[in-house]
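pinging the channel bc i need a second pair of eyes. not urgent but kinda urgent?? the chain im working w is below, pasted from the shared doc
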Amino acid sequence: MTANWARQSLARLALGQPAALVTIVATEGSAPRDAGTKMVVWAEGQAGTIGGGNLEHQVADQARKMLAAHQPFAVQDYPLGPLLAQCCGGRVRLLIERVEAASLDWLTDAARRLDADQPFELRTRFSPGMLRKTVRAVTASQPEATGVTLDGAPATARGDRPGQGHELVERTDAPRPPVLLFGAGHVGQAVARALEPLPFRLSWFDTRPETADIPGVAVGSPAELAAAAMGAGSDAFILILTHDHNLDYALTSAALAGGAFGYLGLIGSDTKKARFLGRLRRDGFADIVLQRLTCPIGLPILKNKAPEVIAVSVAADLLMRAEDARRERTKDLELASL
């Protein structure tokens, strides 16, 4: 789940529009999205996706019919091949539930935790004619759950559907790693657009007053930007691509001096990298520290310098790095529990 589905649900309720929350409970075989994926549907629109195609079209239509009929919830199975003629050929089990004024408390709690990247469990208890929802905090030391569980076992796409007395438990995705993006030029804007729907938490900076009109950009002095780079957390991805080589250098130097980052990327050519490395060595940085600097940024196989191509290349690289970090984190937690 990448978007704040709870916040999207609350936005509809604030407009007096009941909405339907669609959750993939389980999948079997080839399916377009994983268990836990959500989308929000209302009478005239939707937010998020469960994979598109005929599946999404049929589910959105069913959700709107449920809203019109004031139906509280339904558990629905969709065999993708025979029923929907989708080439995936797998099977999905969905929970479609109406959210309304009575849902405000748990939605608000979930939205706040999603905004803050706090891991939590969403528990759904099936009662006669209704669902009872609770949000429960989990500690960071608990291993990350995969998928969705039903009464303590992995939920399945076949067999008995959840019903009265059953409890469905979803654990939210691992917290989104922060990305500190320095520079709001053409490439910076393209990178920000590429990262927006992805599982990252973006903080975007520039020094130029005119960039304050760009939604999401925080304008500060060079010293303030350097302090942000120096104080990045150990899981942070730092991207430096400002309009000024001297500012690029100051931010690179500050980040290396702080040392608390997961990735440090500097836009530029091999020539720019060589010049920066020489200057950094003269400023006292050891080679073992300089090895942490990535320049050029993005996937080496993509050579096109169009801003949108650079953005896709950078986003793909960060996704792979984030997945590697997640695997290492999970492995460490498993070892610690032995």
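so The two ends are 29 Å apart (CA to CA). and The first strand starts at residue 19 and ends at 28. — does that match what u expected or am i reading it wrong
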